[in-house]
Amino acid sequence: MDKLVVAAASVVSEADARAARLGTRFGRLDLSSRLALLAVEALGVDFDALPRDRVGICLATRAGSLPTDIDYWNGRDAPGGPSPTLFAYTLPSAAIGEIAIRHRLTGPSLCLVGENTGALAEAVLLIRRGEVEACLCVECNLVTPALARMIQLPPAARACALFLQRSGDGLRALRENDRDVESLCVLLCPPKSAT
Amino acid sequence: MVDSTQASRPAVSIAGCGAITAVGCGLDALRSALRANASGLRPCDRFNSPRFQSNIVGSAPGNGDGADLDDPAWRLAADALRQAREQARDIVAAIPAERIGLVLSSTKANIEALERHAANRPCSDAARRHLRADLLAADLAATHGAKGPVQCVSVACVSGLVAVQQGAKLIERGAADAVLVVGVDHLSAFVVAGFSALKAMDPTGCRPFDRDRRGLSPGEAGAAIVLARADRVPPPAITLRGWGGSNDANHMTGPTRDGSGLAQAIRAALEMAELPPAQIDYVNAHGTGTPYNDAMESAALRAVFGQRCPPTSGSKGMLGHTLGAAGVVETILCAVAMQERWLPGTPRLNVAADGAPASLVLQPRSVARLDHVLKLNTGFGGVNGALILRHG
């Protein structure tokens, strides 16, 4: 079976997301989408070199949209009700839309919620099945302190991204024992160097 | 382009289904509503407030007015799953628990727990736990004998279709011999307030593809499908033939005007199924009843089928928009229709909109052939999904 190539990897933190400027819309996004979008930006992939309908997006999100859900619902008693803009981000898959819009990627997408989602294996499968030529694999781990108090997860705020391709130059070939996005990103791209 | 190993993959069939929806509990309720073109949309006192655009919703039995459940997501999902497992009892019983997987599809899981937390209302530990969709999936798997792989899918309103695909992929790649696919979302002030803020609800109840449509009506459902290797399901079974996904890459909450994204997903599904468009006997549309969605879907169908669009209808006038459950419950509706050779109508549609498919089915009717059905869903974030089912 053909080797897949890890073409690029990134890790970004909350501080990176708060400092970044990626156009006028960026500041209006929820933190989860900003982290995911910035992680993809940090990959430095030239999407112009690829057929955009053949690039998939595979997103793993540890706590879904719960951090944004809390923010949205805290605004329920505001005049006019909760924010319609924020409502669009109360979906675990919201970052997929933002990534697709920014990079005009029209391929299939998948969002898995939880820990150890197997998102990397799903991205590999999308390529191996021939559904896409390449796949962005993004893991967003955002658990705000308010959410951490409500559910049993430690606070966290970072995102990692990988770009997998069938062939071409890259950091290294994907190996059989590469199991999860975050470990592989940290291995290939220590957090400090991503900024 | 689908890879050359497709022919060697095992086919995947539907072994059992279960549903609890606005039209009642169980497949008989769904079948009766399908034949009668009935609507389960009703005014609900819970949403009698100026802050909501409409109180007309699709509430499931036991979850509407007067109910005070702290874990409605669990109740809906577990009820549907129990029905589906019962229908597939003999098939499931022959498969070791380690070879049975579960894929959950939900957009909001048990969001009731967040509302209760914010209002300092009582909430059990289990209900709070099920605020996390992955834990809801884990608990469903643990209590329904699925010790194989567990996944939790959430891709906006395409979640259900993607979950069905994921279930099929688990079987195709040999990770499981059967997969319990469960779709669930419950009615909540959280969601109704959000759609109200977006001005996306029809104050009089949704009317998919209608000339005067003004928006959607939220609904709730628990829906479950037992998928199994086709060689374990007695014929004539309903088999998953192909699927496709795409992204509009256009807008977070609005679809493309030309339907190109959805058309791309339909073409991918047709290619995987190795079917020409003319072989599709019926299309079950996403059909939210919002002006833009229905126009976009009509454009996508024109792009793929030209002037020869198959009979098409939408089911959200019957069930409401059940979000993460929609793809699962509407696939079940298609399966029931195929078994009965009964073409579903479009409840609450009066006069078709300009530009809607000429083949729009207003009233259900018996048909001689319903072999290939195309199921469509679209969602926020520009996501599109298409699934092709085959009967026999």
Shape descriptor of chain B reads globular
Strand content of chain A: 15-25%
Terminal CA distance of chain A reads: 35 Å
Total tally of structural domains of chain B? 2
Give a description of the structure.
The complex is a heterodimer of chains A (195) and B (392). Chain A is built from 9 helices and 6 strands. Chain A is of the alpha/beta class. Chain A has one domain: Thiolase/Chalcone synthase (Peroxisomal Thiolase, Chain A, domain 1). A 6-stranded mixed β-sheet of chain A has the order 3-2-4-5-1-6, with helices on both faces. The N and C termini of chain A lie far apart (35 Å). Chain B has 2 domains: 6-232, 3-Layer(aba) Sandwich (Peroxisomal Thiolase, Chain A, domain 1); 238-391, Peroxisomal Thiolase, Chain A, domain 1 (3-Layer(aba) Sandwich). Chain B is 32% helix and 21% strand. Chain B has helices at 27-36, 72-87, 89-93, 112-118, 125-129, 133-143, 159-172, 189-197, 260-273, 291-305, 316-319, 326-340, and strands spanning 12-21, 24-25, 42-43, 56-57, 100-105, 150-153, 178-185, 221-229, 238-247, 282-285, 312-314, 342-343, 365-366, 372-379, 383-391. In chain B, the strands form 3 sheets. In chain B, strands 1, 2, 5, 6, 7, 8, 9, 10, 11, 14 and 15 form an 11-stranded mixed β-sheet that branches. In chain B, strands 3-4 form a two-stranded antiparallel ribbon. In chain B, strand 10 (282-285), helix 10 (291-305) and strand 11 form a beta-alpha-beta unit. The two termini of chain B are 26 Å apart. The mean pLDDT of chain B is 95. The chains are: A alpha/beta (195), B alpha/beta (392). At the A-B interface, helix 3, helix 5, strand 3 and helix 6 of A face helix 4, helix 6, strand 6, helix 7 and helix 8 of B.
